[in-house]
Design goal:
three-stranded antiparallel sheet, alpha+beta, single chain, 7 strands, 33% helix, globular
Length: 234
């Protein structure tokens, strides 16, 4: 599939994708702490463009009328950019950036893909952040994407060139759930289940106890797995 052709057919949001969309922009933020050589902006931009060329969902937005993922018409991987944040001697600047990004929403019906890449550079280290809308991937997808970016960067800096193998777009959600076809009864049942899921969202029991991670109404909660106080409380 040509990433610049814009001829990919829209794919209706699946059950979980639809639920995440109705939650008004739930996002995933992956964070990787890097040691050794500093990331170069021009090289990282090349790797981000390669990732968009490889993964179809990274070129997608949500169609407001059909609630489908569709590829941006005329979108070019050359438009991909990565944001570098210079933090100088502020060692914990990445936490400030992470908190801001986890609590800012994507413009899902806009003209910009539902993901972004940031690099926070302090005197101590580089921190790579990959943020994406939950409609186009989950945390497992995030690990794959971070690995792709870093593998591409290593390949680019060692050989001076990248080999990109584009992945096929996912098939329609209905064909995954109902190989023999989706009936009207199936459609009605799924819609009722989804409405009930959204209705009961406020009563869900959190995985982490509130005394371990204080809740913030209307906000995502950042968890840090680097031994800091935020993660260490019990």
């Amino acid at each position: 599939m040509d990433p610049d052709s814009g001829d990919a057919r829209p794919r209706k949001l699946g059950y979980l994708e639809d639920a995440m969309h109705r939650e008004h922009g739930c996002c995933v933020l992956m964070v990787a702490h890097l040691s050794g050589s500093r990331l170069l902006e021009t090289s990282m931009q090349t790797c981000v463009r390669a990732a968009a060329q490889r993964h179809p969902n990274l070129r997608s937005v949500i169609d407001e009328q059909t609630l489908s993922l569709r590829e941006l018409p005329g979108y070019s991987v050359q438009d991909c950019q990565v944001e570098f944040v210079q933090a100088d001697n502020e060692e914990d600047a990445w936490k400030r950036v992470a908190d801001k990004e986890t609590n800012s929403r994507f413009e899902v019906y806009g003209s910009v893909p539902l993901w972004k890449v940031l690099v926070v550079q302090s005197a101590q280290r580089d921190v790579l952040m990959v943020k994406f809308h939950h409609c186009i991937g989950d945390a497992g997808s995030g690990f794959v994407l971070v690995n792709d970016l870093l593998t591409s960067y290593q390949q680019l800096t060692s050989s001076g060139a990248l080999q990109v193998e584009p992945l096929p777009a996912l098939p329609a959600a209905d064909s995954l759930c109902y190989p023999a076809g989706r009936s009207e009864a199936h459609a009605s049942e799924a819609e009722l289940l989804l409405e009930e899921l959204v209705r009961r969202r406020s009563s869900w029991t959190p995985v982490l106890k509130y005394d371990a991670v204080p809740p913030t109404a209307g906000h995502n909660t950042s968890l840090y797995r680097d031994g800091t106080e935020e993660f260490g409380r019990t």
